[in-house]
Amino acid sequence: MFLGKVIGTVVASQKEATLDGLKFLVVRRLTIDGDDTNGYVVAADAVGAGIDEVVMVATGSSARQTRLTDKRPCDAVIMAIVNTLEVDGEEKYRKE
Amino acid sequence: MFLGKVIGTVVASQKEATLDGLKFLVVRRLTIDGDDTNGYVVAADAVGAGIDEVVMVATGSSARQTRLTDKRPCDAVIMAIVNTLEVDGEEKYRKE
Amino acid sequence: MFLGKVIGTVVASQKEATLDGLKFLVVRRLTIDGDDTNGYVVAADAVGAGIDEVVMVATGSSARQTRLTDKRPCDAVIMAIVNTLEVDGEEKYRKE
Amino acid sequence: MFLGKVIGTVVASQKEATLDGLKFLVVRRLTIDGDDTNGYVVAADAVGAGIDEVVMVATGSSARQTRLTDKRPCDAVIMAIVNTLEVDGEEKYRKE
Amino acid sequence: MFLGKVIGTVVASQKEATLDGLKFLVVRRLTIDGDDTNGYVVAADAVGAGIDEVVMVATGSSARQTRLTDKRPCDAVIMAIVNTLEVDGEEKYRKE
Q1: Which of A75, A77, A78 to mutate to test the interface with B (most CBs of B within 10 A)?
Q2: pLDDT tens digits, one per residue of E50-84
Q3: Looking at the domain covering D2-79, what would its CATH class be?
């Protein structure tokens, strides 16, 4: 998984029928210290994540191992909202 | 998924038999702000995308989770046409 | 899929038994305009591609969705020979 | 697999229900000589790895081939703790 | 697949039980001309490869399509030992 911050939304009305009801969020990749990068992914939201929250994203076939994404053409899913990130003994992020 | 813009087509008459009927489009990768990059992928079209449209592309085994691509040697599929992309509270793209 | 040019061959006599009979070709990755890069992949050939031909390569589990590669430890397959590549309204490549 | 060093933890209370009980560790990618890089992954721990240990990480669908991660939206798993790494005839790392 | 040279070994006693008996080799990635890079992967050995041999590595779910790696948390396998590599009409490598 990688760490990301939810920074936006994608709306798409014309899509594979099985994707109806899925919410697509833009997730900016974060560095190991929780800082922004230019990388991103559009991920389906399986946990009710909100803008500016730090999340974990699973990709590939693992992104389909949720009830919402099972058997759907979806290769990235937000599967957890991060409470705390601790690296090298320092707290780099804490959800408020 | 990543965001891309449809910029071309690939025609291939000599191919795996199961790929007959699939349309292959060249998709340029876009940045998080909807700008062009040099990256691209050739993707099967599952949604009737047209040249210059902004789309979402799913890759890997997830690309085979559509009726058109099921069990085919295809690792990228256009599974949605984007209506709007909003990032950091700004609308970066709106389909006309 | 990505676009590549067939530029070489790999011969390997000591290998997984299930790979007997597969032909392994070296494929140079091409840019979106059909130009050379330093990237490459060694791919199984499912379509009878020849040296210098421009081809499409599928990777990952999708590379096993052909009769020749099914259930084999093979993560890249040439699944189509390109006739024409058109990008931004220009023909970038045409098979002679 | 790649080699990494366990450098932190991620706590996430709001997540896919199937992930309950999994421990998520931050793993810094190491070079071929066992040196630090800026790359990282958040991986589920299948072997009881501790902070500062050098481990092997498997990604993709292979990350689900453990009892703890089976059928879960998890794309990276620590599947071994490294005792020794020998490269070019030199011992680059030995677990104390 | 990519081309690599076997340059080392990883010993790990604490690991997923299903991995017992697998040999893990460090494989340096080679360029299209057979030259060294800094990239590497740790791969299970399915063919009895030795130090300094040039090999082909399959990754992802394809790495599990051998008897030794089936259903194991292993995402890279050496599935062939290269005899000859020919690129652009030149022999770049021949196993001695």
Answers
A1: A75
A2: 999 999 999 999 999 999 999 999 999 999 999 99
A3: mainly beta
